[in-house]
Amino acid sequence: MEQKSVKRAAFLSMLLCCITCIADRWTKGWALSVWSCSFIIAPWLTFEGELNTGLAWSIGAHSSPWLRYLLVGISFTVLVACYVWLISSYLARKSFSQGLVWVVVGATSNLYDRLFWGGVIDFIVLHYGGYAWPTFNIADMMICYGALCLWYEGRRGLI
């Protein structure tokens, strides 16, 4: 019976990840269609399109054009390693890491952006007073949620 519940949890997690990934792709498409516009959604939330060619928080965005290729190569290598880890842990223990699934799906969406757009399409800006959080997207939220789940799973000895 436990095997059935693991399969069901894996299926539901993957389904939710797919729905979230579709939402990420759709919102990035929307952001591209209104690229030069800025939308104030709430006093603390704005949608503004930005192409992040660098690392997280646009670190290195204005450096060498080779950074794009380096980031694509590193992202692809890490994603392959994560896919191998995900599949091997499932085959070995008949369990899976929900956090790893979220990280992999979010990172795959951002890798797609790097390959086809030359950078990651970001558009969500949170701000308060004079401070603005760096621009991000739904895939970034998936990666952060997955990292939090991985931390939790590691603390509980689940992975």
Q: Which characteristics define this entry?
A:
single chain; 159 residues; alpha+beta; 4-stranded antiparallel β-sheet
* Main sheet summary: 4 strands, antiparallel
How many structural domains in the coordinates? 1
List SSEs in N-to-C order. HEEHHEEH
> What spatial order of strands do you see in the largest sheet?
1-2-3-4
Shape: globular
Helix share bin: 55-70%
The value of Rg in angstroms is 17 Å
Number of helices: 4
Distance between the termini: 21 Å
Quick summary:
The protein is α+β, with helices and mostly antiparallel strands. Helix content is 62%, strand content 15%.
Descriptive notes:
The protein is α+β, with helices and mostly antiparallel strands and 159 residues long. It has one domain. The protein contains four helices and four strands; from the N terminus they run H-E-E-H-H-E-E-H. The protein has a four-stranded antiparallel sheet. Strand 3 (120-128) and strand 4 (131-132) form a beta hairpin. Helix 1 (2-33) packs parallel to helix 3, helix 2 packs antiparallel against helix 3 (98-117) and helix 3 (98-117) packs antiparallel against helix 4. The protein is globular. The two termini are 21 Å apart. The model has no long low-confidence stretch (mean pLDDT 83).
